[in-house]
Amino acid sequence: MTSIVIKALLFNTAMLNALRLIKKRQDPIQTDDSHKIVYGIETYDAPSAVKQVHAQFKTWGKDVPRKHIVIVGGPLDSGPVFTCPEDVYGLICKEATVLYRGMQRLREVDGDWFIGLHEDSYVDTKSIAKALRKQDPSKQIVYSEFGCGVAWEYSPDNKNHTRNPPPGWVDFDKEIHQCDAVAQHGAMCSSAAFVVSRAALEHMTQGMTLNEFIEAHASHCPEKYEKKCQTDTTTSCLLYSLGIKMSIFPDDFRQETIDKEGPHYPESNIFHLAKFEQKEEIPEAMKKLHEQLGH
Length: 295
Prior knowledge:
Layout: H1 2-26, H2 29-32, E1 37-42, H3 47-58, E2 69-72, H4 91-109, E3 113-118, E4 121-123, H5 125-132, E5 141-148, H6 172-175, H7 180-185, E6 187-189, E7 193-197, H8 198-205, H9 210-218, H10 231-242, E8 245-248, E9 255-257, E10 270-272, H11 282-292
Parallel strand pairs: 1-2, 1-3, 5-8, 9-10
Antiparallel strand pairs: 3-7, 4-10, 5-6, 5-7
C-alpha cells in the first residue's frame, strides 16, 4: 500500500511539474518582463493607417496582451472617450490622450514603462523588455532621440555663436517658439518612439482628469502656432515645466528609420517605417521586417 501511495505522489508531482512547464512555454510574458510595459499607438482614420495598425497586431503586437496596447485615433481607438479631431489640429490632443490613457493602463496592469508609438512604428518587444530591465521606473525619466527644435543660436555646432547655419538647417524656433527650454536645450525627436517611466507619467497626470491634462498639455502650444506645433516639442515643453528629465536612449536601444531595403543595423530594436512614398506598402514591409528579425 505504501509503495502505491508513493507512486501516486510521484505521478502527481510529475504531472504538476509538466503542467507548470507547459504554462510557462505558453506564456512568454512571464519570461521577458514585457508584462511590465504598455504600448500606446497614436494614429488616425485614413484606410492606410488602419491597415498599418492591423499589421502591427499581426507582427510585433501579436504576442503582446491586448490590455497592454492603447490606441488613440481612428476606428480602432481604445476608448472609452475620444474627443480629439481627426486632422492636424488633433495631433497635440492625441499625444496628451495617449499619455493619459497610458498612465491609466499602467495602473490597471501594474506596469512600469509606457512606450509611445505611431502606426508606422515597429518594436522588438523582447529586446526592449530586456533593455528596460536595466532602467529604474521609479525615476522620473523619458527616453527618446533628442535634440529637435534647438535654435541655431544655442546649437553646439554654433561655436561662440559666430557661425552661420549650414545649408539645409531649419531653425524651427524662428517659426515656432513654444518654450525657451526647447530653444536652448532641444526637444525629444519621438517620431518613432519614446519611453516614459511610470514615475514620470504619475507626476505628469497627477490629480487631473483627461480633459484637464489635454488642456495643460496644449497650453505649451500657443494659439498662434496651433497649425504648426509639433507633438514632441509640445510634450518636451511640458516635461521641462514639470522638471522631468529627458535623455537619449540608453546604449542598448537602437532606433532606425528604414525603407524597402529593411534594416541595416543588426542591433536595432526600434524601427520607423517612414521612408515609403506609398503608405500602402508599409504593412507588407512590416511583415517582411518581422520575418527578417526571426519572429
